[in-house]
Amino acid sequence: AQSVTQPDIHITVSEGASLELRCNYSYGATPYLFWYVQSPGQGLQLLLKYFSGDTLVQGIKGFEAEFKRSQSSFNLRKPSVHWSDAAEYFCAVGDGGYNKLIFGAGTRLAVHP
Amino acid sequence: DAGVIQSPRHEVTEMGQEVTLRCKPISGHNSLFWYRQTMMRGLELLIYFNNNVPIDDSGMPEDRFSAKMPNASFSTLKIQPSEPRDSAVYFCASSSPAMGQPSNQPQHFGDGTRLSIL
Question: Which of A6, A28, B19, B67 has its CA 20 to 30 A from that of A15?
């Protein structure tokens, strides 16, 4: 069955430091992959998506993600974190028809000044 | 463009009362999803619709939960009778028609309804 694993429940980084959030998926075919961000009290907002083509995908707010088929990974990166990036981040894989998504458990990011 | 609109944003009610949550998807979207989010269980998919038809309701926790989509611009999630363990944030999301198989359109989320059952 399809699944998404986010190994890190909590991550703390200093403002200005680089960030990498890990995501591993299990999917039988070419995956459609997404990263979402959830700020406190808000819904999930799409950061970026991967369907095909270039394996390095650019998103909003300065985020990027790299699809690595050999590692079944889709890690999210940002070169310099801002305090406003503190939020929960969810990785998801498209699950067949009707645009259903399988979500990971999320990674909560804290940013120290 | 207006995003997914959910109402109410907050609901506090007593155990045993009926609760109705509402969702207006983005115009032109034909898939609609209801989720529940709690600290203990994370984000759970309850039910989803395509072209107003329920496709999979296997995530609905109990018969106390029901969902309808009478038209393309409105959906409700009802809990009757409500219980304290139903307290959670409920999200609605919608997506535009899929471009082939497998589906590849992202979901767009509302800001949620924070439900507290006393």
Answer: A6
Query: What region, left, alpha or beta, does residue A16 occupy, with left being phi > 0 and alpha being psi -120 to 50 degrees?
Result: left
Residue B115 phi, psi dihedral angles, 5° rounding: -105, 130
Which amino acid belongs to residue A19? Answer: L
Q: How far apart are the C-alpha atoms of B42 and A101, rounded to whole Å?
A: 14
Cβ–Cβ pairs < 8 A, chains A and B: 63
Q: pLDDT by residue (tens digit) across A25-69?
A: 998 777 889 999 999 989 999 999 998 888 999 999 999 999 999
Task: Say which of A42, A96, A99 has its CB closest to residue B95.
Answer: A99
Which residue in the set B43, B98, B107 is minimally distant from A97, CB to CB?
A: B98
